Amino acid sequence: MTEKIKGIAASNGIAIAKAYKLVQPQLDIEKIAIQNSEQEINRLNTAIQTSSEELEHIKEQARTELGEDKAAIFAAHLLVLRDPELIQPVQDKIKQEQVNAEYALHETASQFIQMFEQMDNEYMKERAADIRDVTKRVVGHLLGVEIPNPSLLTEEVIIVTDDLTPSDTAQLNRKYVKGFTTDIGGRTSHSAIMARSMEIPAVVGTKTVTADIQTGDLLIVDGLDGFVFINPSDEIIHTYHQKLSDYNEKKAIWAALKDQKTVSGDGHVVELAANIGTPEDVRGVLDNGGEGVGLYRTEFLYMGRDQLPTEEEQYTAYKKVLESMGGKPVVVRTLDIGGDKELPYLHLPKEMNPFLGYRAIRLCLEEQDIFRTQLRALLRASTQGNLKIMFPMIATIEEFIQAKSILLEEKSILQSSGIEVSDQIEIGMMVEIPSSAILADQFAKEVDFFSIGTNDLIQYTLAADRMNERVSYLYQPYHPAILRLINMVIEAAHREGKWVGMCGEMAGDQMAIPILLGLGLDEFSMSASSILPARSLIKNLSKAKLESLKGEILSKSTAEEVLEVVKKLINP
Ligand code: PEP
Ligand code: MG
Fold first, then answer.
1. Where is the Phosphotransferase system enzyme I N-terminal domain (predicted)?
2. How many angstroms does the Cα of residue 90 sit away from the middle of ligand 2?
3. Listed residue (187, 195, 205) closest to 170, CA to CA
């Protein structure tokens, strides 16, 4: 019988394919006394051989699909596997102590891991992570437990997992991954945001998909309405083929707006830009009629690898985005690591509240080498297009002033060594912490522009974790408290003659767009796939009418009351 699971619609579209469960198995390693150590060493060697063939395959696949830097991770794993300094002591242990191979390997590897992790040397710490990964693979083979590996996919699948980290998402193979569904997470988790920029349909926060679904089950992921169907009947499959073709028809109608400006019914012009995570996403921006990039989340350049990207690597990525956007504005956000975006190779201590912790600009102002390297790469690339730079998670004026002065310092160092830097770069900030929204009048004197990050602003204002589906009822974009903050920011900026954008997911939300237009937002930055539906909606709205409703909307006391006003306006 078909089972239907409700979740959160996280990325538009419909996918129909077999399930691929990405759940890390529990590896229980017992100590067992053995009789024949020769035989046990043979078992070990066979498992090493199989793991090594597997890694060769993954490495080649990574090289062609994901690039040289990702392939290097697996090359490092292969080196560990072939290192006699690790393997010989395992064999000795089997012989001397007459114990099973998985136990001998696990014990020996743990000693190396502990030793490397304690060293005050980044390179050795990374080797510890490599040994952990490789050991898991070999132990998996020894125990006959399959360790899922999405890089080995050879057919179209829908990924089913408890959670997908942003770096897992970055490594998904677009050719074979047709959709995904998770137990946890919300619409503004970064894996959901990335799925939207990769245009992969997704349903998150289902609570139970990993328990309910087996690898090989046929699935429908309905990213439009937030449903997952397990082994659907022919009738449901037929309905969904119809729904998919209706959706594609709508997309064809929107496509006619691709090269048009974004103008409301009464002639008010706004800019519709896109959020991107990698240079590859630019194609989607242009295909969907984006008028610029309103948020380039540069942290993805730092993920899915085992060391910081060099200045040259960053320069190449920024240059590529600026060039491909051909003079259209590109707002690059400096590194926003932390929260759900971890960089294991920085070895930062675990925190009780990572979303309130040592992250983003806080980390950059402290670890200035990392920050300055990124700024230099950006400044050098600035002559290749229309670059704007903004800083994430600004809570105080001092942070903005310090970040800006570091940027200007790097600029003058570059210029005095004869390197050309654009003098048109606007410098702005994200408004995603309530303190900066409340003091927007003062920040507005310092910045060239604001970009409102509602994904965080909502979670911090209502104290509701954006990743936690249990408090998702409190995560309310239309809450009057949020709308008042947005209004304060827009009014403060306009008084100083500065422009305001929004790059949180709310900017692409069909119910929020009329409100934001009425509040006077200048730039809306969203997932590329939301741009054309937004342009189509704005064409049919009257800015003057919405502006006249501003007082009424801001005086409401609940999100529901606000929505009633908007609904009446859209469907009078
Ligand atoms: C935001 O907080 O709204 C934002 C755009 O940044 P991120 O989603 O990357 O935290
Ligand atoms: Mg944010």
1. 6-127
2. 46
3. 195
Catalytic residue from among 106, 141, 479, 503: 503
Ligand 1 close to Cβ of residue 455 (< 6 A): yes
Q: Show the low-confidence residues of the chain (pLDDT under 70).
A: 1-2, 65-67, 69-70, 122, 151, 166-171, 572
Segments forming the whole domain that contains residue 156 = 3-23+149-233
For the question of residue 503 being annotated catalytic, the response is yes
The domain boundary, picked from 187, 217, 233, lies at 233
Q: Is the CB of 336 under 6 A from ligand 1?
A: yes
Residue 7 in contact with ligand 1 by CB distance below 6 A: no
Q: What is the pTM of this model?
A: 0.77
**How far does the chain reach from its first CA to its final CA, in angstroms?**
42
Q: Which of 77, 106, 141, 190 is catalytic?
A: 190
Is the distance from the beta carbon of residue 501 to the nearest atom of ligand 1 less than 6 Å? no
Identify which of 459, 533, 457, 442 has the alpha carbon closest to the alpha carbon of residue 495. 442
Q: Is 364 a catalytic residue?
A: no
Binding site membership of 299 for ligand 1 (Cβ less than 6 Å): no
Parallel/antiparallel/unpaired status of strands 262-263 and 293-297: unpaired
Contact 508, 524 (CB under 8 A): yes
Q: 105-132 pLDDT, tens per residue?
A: 999 999 998 888 888 776 777 788 788 8
Angle at 246 between CA 240 and CA 252, to 5 degrees: 140
**Which amino acid residue places its CA nearest to atom 8 of ligand 1?**
455
Q: Is 452 exposed, middle or buried (0-12, 13-18, 19+ CB in 10 A)?
A: buried
Q: Which atom of ligand 1 is nearest to the CA of 504?
A: 3
Query: pLDDT (tens digit, 9 = 90+) per residue, 198-218?
Result: 789 999 999 999 999 999 999
Candidate from 275, 297, 333, 465 with most ligand 1 atoms within 8 A of CB, to mutate: 297
Question: Where does a domain end: 183, 217, 233?
Answer: 233
Phi, psi of 526 (to 5 degrees): -145, 180
Q: What is the pLDDT of residue 366?
A: 96
Q: How far apart are CA 156 and CA 175, in angstroms?
A: 7
